[in-house]
Specification:
The structure holds 2 protein chains of 2 kinds. Chain A is α/β, with parallel strands linked by helices. In chain A, 27% of the residues lie in helices and 25% in strands. In chain A, strand 11 and strand 12 form a beta hairpin. Chain A starts with a strand and ends with a helix. Classes of the chains: A alpha/beta, B alpha+beta. The interface between A and B is medium-sized, with 22 and 13 residues. Strand 21 of chain A pairs antiparallel with strand 2 of chain B.
Amino acid sequence: MIFDSYEAYKQADFKPKVCILGSGPAGTTVARKLGGAGIPVVVLEAGSREFSDESQDFYRGATVGDFYFDLDITRLRFMGGSSNHWAGWCRVLDKQDFEPKAWAPDTGWPISRADIEPYLREVHDILELPDFRPDVPISDDIRWVQLIKSPAVRFGEKFAEEVDRSRNIAVVLNTYATELAGDGRRVTGARLWSDGQDAGTFTADYFITCTGGLENSRLLLWSNRRSNGGVVPNANALGRYWMEHPTFEGGNAILADYGEFEVDASNEAFFSPTLAAMERLQILNFGIRLIESPYPNVKRLIADLACTAPDMAEWMSSQLDQRLRCAAQLYVAWEQAPLASNRIELSKADVDHAGVPRVELHWKKSPLERRTLLEGLRLFGTTMAQKNLGRVRIADWIGNGGDYPTNEETAGHHHMGGTRMGTDVLKSVVDANCKVHGMDNLYVGGSSVFCTSGQCNPTTTITALACRLGDHLGKVITV
Amino acid sequence: MSHFLKKMSRRAIVQALIALPALSLFRPAAADPDEIDPDEIIEVNGWILRRSDLA
């Protein structure tokens, strides 16, 4: 069932056991799992069926620190959530992303990749993916990795008909849960805002916040303040350890033969470090995206090489005559160190139309990440040269220790952390089952539970974790 | 020079002669072209190259 207003929903006399906030990939997946298990669930979606400027305005906020996107641009507030502008890149976090790393504090998850692998079959169905291919070692340091470009499932569109038919799922649009109320053991209700005004309190046995990697922290910070710590009793880490995937053009490559690597339908190939290389250099995970260069860029690059290695440039030039596809731009996206100082706070000066303080995001890239970028490119360049597959040129600003450019990709629009998973209540918000520490009936879904970011796009892992959470709750909740 | 040698004791001259071969240790070793590894990876002007690329 889908209701376009809270008023319409109230007339249906639906009795949910579970209330899910947010209808993005996490919220929709958990709802479908619970609905399929015969558990009545309501999904409160703050936005409508379509994009609107009015709805997006609730997402405005401020960033302190490094340059970042406007917070009302980097996410979407309508049915299907941010899947509505998802590019569709899919890969599950690496096994090593779940493991603690001695050289990077506060890494490691309380679960392993093996804990989400049983759900990948479902994830493939949901995201319409073929099977993932195993990584292919190129050298001791570098592996070819697969990122699948999926059809970019829009969760709102894809599942609208199924949800509408369901007798166990009620999606209520234009209904904004502004805060949760709690007594330190249980959430007792959600305060609603609908049709431009306060709409009273909503109650259910269980609550799951799936409002996104920025909004989950905002909601819980505000709720906790209003309930005097009664919603997240152990709030030391709440809002903290926020992460992104910084993404910049790291240089160029001239390749002996572009066909040496398996490329996807967009003529792109991806490379990551081996665990041994990460351990040896004490760096984080990264992904190098190799994108075929336009012809004028190739000529410019060979001219640059000619100043340093004329014979090599001449050989490359002759290759260019025979094969136009022999140079590439290298884009690097890397794992961000989980730092407590990268955090979401509530604005002290600005509130949205419902009176909820807006997000103030504090975000800075760390020296460890800068080293990961440089050493990662060196690893890739060394592998290319050693194997005689090509030659790499590192961008000047990276080699010279210059500032990050402000006119490039910047990051992946991947909002991770803030309600991270863990066993230490001082450094985490939810346990291994995504249940808020100390609370009996409050769970969190989405990338805000990520402990580390790895290097790949998060939607596949978000969906797998949501399947796992749905399965867990299906066993916990009795109808 | 001969005046300098006359002033030195026989013992000092012998000690100096014994020490002479060790002086080469303080001299930078001249690159032996046969010992340069053409496959060595080097970084020049941002390029990651094999040394042989510079030939």
